[in-house]
Design goal:
Helices cover about 30% and strands about 30% of the residues. The chain is of the alpha+beta class and about 280 residues long. The strands form three sheets. A seven-stranded mixed sheet has the order 1-2-3-4-5-7-6, sandwiched between helices. Strand 2 and strand 3 form a beta hairpin. Helix 1 packs across helix 2 and helix 6 packs across helix 7. The chain binds coenzyme A. Coenzyme A binds next to strand 4, helix 3 and helix 4.
Length: about 280
């Protein structure tokens, strides 16, 4: 496959193509399509829309706008990344990564050092991209962040989200985005460390993973929390089970964050998908 061309989008015609792409990514709710005029207003005020083109066809985009965060030292500017969408026929080819990389370069150029965004922590592909490949970290869990969502990917489940922090001037992030690609980690890489699996899912009927009743108390420097490797497929097959996963992991993640743990890595191994929580980090950066 030829490499896609990444472009900053600016014109009303380009934004109309982004409207159309949204319908293919988050099918099902016309109300949730962000219209061209909102993109135009945002980009005239420091917002960024970048697109990935293959043979002149838009197949992916990323959208974000400047934001303000509250800190103990007062309000501080940041970039709020709100949407990243790749056409279903073009996923897992590094296009999401390439678009975030473009966003990283542009936002650095604007003089900002922090990008945040939210994602559903049960989506392992998103987790792998955000945490393992891009080097974002997380210690913020938001229950039902967007209320009841209507689009085809989200309808029917509480819209709980991780809010991730992407400290874009740090060595951690620069190394992940550098030319030398990091080899994917597996669980053995952590075997020297004091690694604590918080629970092991059971196999349910139909061979879908089912969360256990309880998880171990959090102690030690590193903890592992497993999530389903394909939550969307699980949700389609057994919606009640998907809800169980939402409520179980809500408790695990909230407990870990309030105990001072931070999500610092994500590992796909032995057919499973695992968050790595670290304790004792002095800074999120
Ligand atoms: C999430 C999304 C933006 C990712 O885009 P993408 O172009 O597929 O991402 P990339 O190819 O750069 O990275 C995905 C990585 O996840 C890996 N992956 C794929 N399926 C996975 C899974 N089930 N579990 C864990 N990792 C997975 C891929 O192998 C790839 O890693 P690699 O490059 O090391 O092989 C895209 O899937 C999408 O549009 N999803 C629907 C909309 C959405 O969720 N948007 C984000 C929230 S607003």
């Amino acid at each position: 496959m030829p490499a896609p061309v990444i472009k900053i989008l600016e014109t009303p015609e380009e934004m109309t193509a982004v409207e159309e792409l949204q319908r293919q990514v988050w099918h099902g709710s016309e109300t949730d399509v962000v219209p061209a005029h909102v993109f135009i207003a945002a980009i005239h005020n420091g917002g960024i829309v970048a697109g990935a083109y293959l043979e002149n066809r838009l197949i992916g985009f990323v959208f974000g706008f400047p934001g303000i965060e509250k800190t103990p030292d007062g309000p501080r500017p940041k970039h709020c990344s709100h949407m990243l969408g790749i056409h279903p026929d073009h996923r897992d080819g590094g296009i999401g990564f390439a678009l975030k990389r473009a966003q990283w370069q542009i936002v650095r150029h604007q003089g900002l050092d922090h990008i945040t965004w939210t994602y559903d922590p049960l989506l392992s592909r998103n987790a792998y991209l955000n945490i393992a490949k891009l080097g974002a970290v997380c210690n913020t869990y938001r229950r039902a962040e967007y209320g009841d969502m209507r689009d085809g990917l989200n309808a029917g489940l509480p819209s709980d989200r991780f809010q991730v922090d992407w400290w874009i001037n740090t060595r951690r992030v620069e190394r992940r985005l550098g030319k030398r690609v990091r080899k994917p980690l597996n669980l053995d890489h952590f075997s020297q460390a004091e690694l604590q699996p918080l629970y092991a899912p059971h196999a349910s009927t139909g061979n879908l993973p089912r969360p256990p009743e309880h998880f171990s108390p959090l102690e030690g420097k590193l903890a592992l929390a497993e999530i389903p490797s394909d939550f969307n497929a699980l949700k389609e097959k057994d919606f009640a089970l998907a809800r169980d996963w939402r409520f179980f992991t809500r408790e695990v993640f909230e407990t870990a964050f309030s105990a001072g743990y931070i999500v610092t890595d994500f590992v796909n191994d032995h057919g499973g998908s695992f968050y790595v929580f670290s304790n004792g980090e002095t800074t999120l950066q």
